[in-house]
Amino acid sequence: MPTLVSEADPDRVLQWTCNTLVGRRMVGGLNICGDAQSDRQVSSVHAAIFWDRRNGTWLIRDLGSSNGTSVDSHRLKFDESKAITKDTLLGFGRSTWRVRDIAPPPAAATNSQGELRVASGDMLLLPDESRAEIAVFRDLDGWRVRPYTAEPDQSEPIEHGQRLKAGKQTWTITLPGAGGMHTHQGLGRLASWSLELRVPSTMENIRPTFVRDGARITLPPSRHHELWWLLARQRVADREVERPEAEQGWLAPAVLARQMGTDTNYLNVLVHRSRNQVATVGFTDYADIIERRGKPTGRRLGVRDVKIIEVDG
To answer: At what angle do helices 253-260 and 225-240 cross, to 10 degrees?
Structure first.
């Protein structure tokens, strides 16, 4: 999503997740969000910034402003559109803004009542997170949909504009693009790496680091790393009592959910997000970061060589 920083006052930041109008009076409503400008050189409805799904880029269009819209000193004609990228300088009248971030918009859904739901990361839950019935998510192959209570791999492809029913409402799905997640390549399989988990005493911001031959890949902290820690702790405990490797580290989903203060449905969301994060880093067997078995039902961490490091904080 675009983030604009004022050239005159770096503490002024505009950020939004969907198409927006730039002006002194922002127009609220479906698929329109953002922040207002106070500069009187800015028209009440000055310009539009919107996502071009076909080309995968953000565009800006002048809407007939009195004092002009510029892109890197190029003044736009009425209704002219131009792509914006990171570090593009935008001008609205005398007000100038630098584009700092330019990530694509998240997936979203709208219903006939005008309600908008926006994805968190690469997952959209409908009708909302507290009453989830359907999960729309992105993996390496593209966007997919499954019942919220189903396993992450029990899904089917979904298309932009497709309609789904959830919460006694029909939702129209908006997807930023058809492609799968962007990944880095060349890390190979998880089994060739060890995993260190730095766990603060507060249990917040657990930091996992994959280690191999002097190389270290540290992932940004996330909620699903608490799941990794619980499964790693079980692996270490089973290893210390010399349990056979095939039996090491397994915990029942109901036990995991109880320890995390959630339910087994949300546990599936955490498994999905775990796999997505590992896939984005570049592991070929990303789905194995959380292994599962049928009878008895269980989940375990897919990295055998794991070390838990307790740190202050």
So the answer is: 120
Number of Cβ within 10 Å of residue 8's Cβ equals 10
User: Strand pairing partners for 135?
Assistant: 125, 146
Go through 264-302 and write b for each residue having 16 or more CB atoms within 10 A of its CB, e for each that does not. Answer: bbbbbbbbbbbbbbbbbeebeebbbbbebeeeeebbbbb
What's the pLDDT tens digit per position in 84-138?
Answer: 999 999 988 888 889 998 888 888 999 988 888 988 878 899 999 889 999 998 8
d(CA 225, CA 204): 9
Q: What is the pLDDT of residues 186-231, one digit of tens each?
A: 578 898 999 999 999 988 899 999 999 988 999 999 999 999 999 9
H/E stretch holding 125 reads: strand 123-126
Q: What are phi and psi of 46, to 5 degrees?
A: -100, -50
Measured CA to CA, the distance from residue 264 to residue 256 in angstroms comes to: 8
Domain 2-102, CATH: 2.60.200.20
Q: Which two tokens stand for residue 46?
A: 């000055």
Span(s) in the chain for CATH 2.60.200.20: 2-102
